[in-house]
Amino acid sequence: MNWNRIHRRLVMLGEDHCVPGAQLAVHHGGETRHCEFGEVEHGTGRPMTADSKIPIGSITKTFTAAVAMILVADGDLELDAPLADSLPELDQVARELGTELTLRHLLSHTGGLPSDPDDIRTTSLRRHAIEACRDLNPLHSPGEGFSYSNIGYVLTGHLIEVVTGMSWREAVETILLRPLGLSGHFVVGPHADASVVTGHAVNATLRRAVPVEQSLTAVDAPAGALAASALDLVALGRLLAGKRLTAVVDPATLVEMRTPVRRAEPFGMADGWGLGLALYHQEGTTWVGHDGTGDGTSCHLRFDADSGSVVALTCNGSSGFAMWRELVGELHAAGLPVGDYHGPHRLTKPITPPPGCTGSFLNGDTEYAVRAAERKELLLTVDGEPFADLSLFDGLIFAMRDSETGDTSQTGRFLRDPADGGIGWIQIGGRLARRRDRVQEVA
Predict the structure, then answer these.
(1) Which segment of 23-27, 39-43, 98-102, 288-292 scores lowest on mean pLDDT?
(2) I need a surface site. Which of 3, 26, 154, 304 has the fewest CB within 10 A?
(3) Are residues 194 and 327 both part of a single domain?
(4) In what order do the strands lie in the sheet with 298-303?
(5) Handedness of CA 212, 218, 220, 224 (dihedral sign)
(6) Which is it for the CA torsion 421, 426, 427, 433, positive or negative?
(7) Using one digit for the tens of pLDDT, what is the confidence trace for 337-362?
(8) Do residues 103 and 156 both lie within one domain?
(9) The whole model's pTM is what?
(10) What is the residue-averaged pLDDT of the chain?
(11) How many structural domains compose the chain?
């Protein structure tokens, strides 16, 4: 692999996408290489270094899942036991959740939980976890589908605290980070690190990058509060691939994390899902990893457990996801076929939207509203704001044209309810929203 060429292309892609700074680290062929460019904050002149810590957003979930699975391997937690066995207070406020939900459901996003609570009224992780579950309307029964959920990882974080007697932060540092030789850096909470790299809202058309603050609340920390470098993520990837000799976690547990979970269909995000890990199929090989976005950051981790190759990209610009997509192509050309999600390969048979596609769909307090438009198209709003134009194809899959940017890279789908064949859900970016008039059928 021509590393100098990769470095040059990384810098060029950063300039094309107006990303203020980025880190790339690759472990391949038994060797780890890394490169960086740009600034930790636009206009300051402070250079991005290999040790700079960037808010990694939802890749934090992989760290949280790894801690939970280490506790499973140690016999402190059970993957398939009802949560109420460890969290009796959950049984008191949401009995069906307590008796039916398991840790496996939480880690694989198959619990039927909404993405986020609308109103956070506490600074206690325990209280937040319970309040988030008290009045929620499930999207489906546990184990019967996939919907990406931050609430599920808040519950996992609370579960970790209960069984360890430590805070989530202390558990992550003690059980995972220190044994890996890594230090903990957090974007929120009493131990928030002021040196964490600044994220930027990027308008690539205007060539403008504006610094933004991280808005995550402390009680949502298990779902997204870590900051890390690309080299830190490579260290985690090598551990989870089973190629880094350590007593932190046993090989059987790693295989379990990488194994696809039944009914975990993350359409719009990945080709499958394990426990805290997304699965990406590429030319007969399955790459594993996770993506994450903080406020104004975009971070990506991939690894191939067979070869031990690991790739990590961290960017401090909101346009970093588009940059990642192009970088994947560059890595392929350089001989490293990194796995990524490409969605349906071809949408070739346009169809007229059948009855039931229009209307209101709910994911917690978030409303997805679909209405008919001209030329067989549909218009999607999210909480009343224009989101995308939808063109429907065979299989109830739709192409999306972003209302603000015109981007057409995303797809979504409608799903039928097996009970009666009617349209029961819409799925966008891995998140389900249930048709409003069917919500109480599950709740």
Answers:
(1) 98-102
(2) 3
(3) yes
(4) 31-38, 21-28, 310-315, 298-303, 285-292, 278-282, 272-273
(5) positive
(6) negative
(7) 999 998 887 788 899 999 899 999 99
(8) yes
(9) 0.95
(10) 92
(11) 2
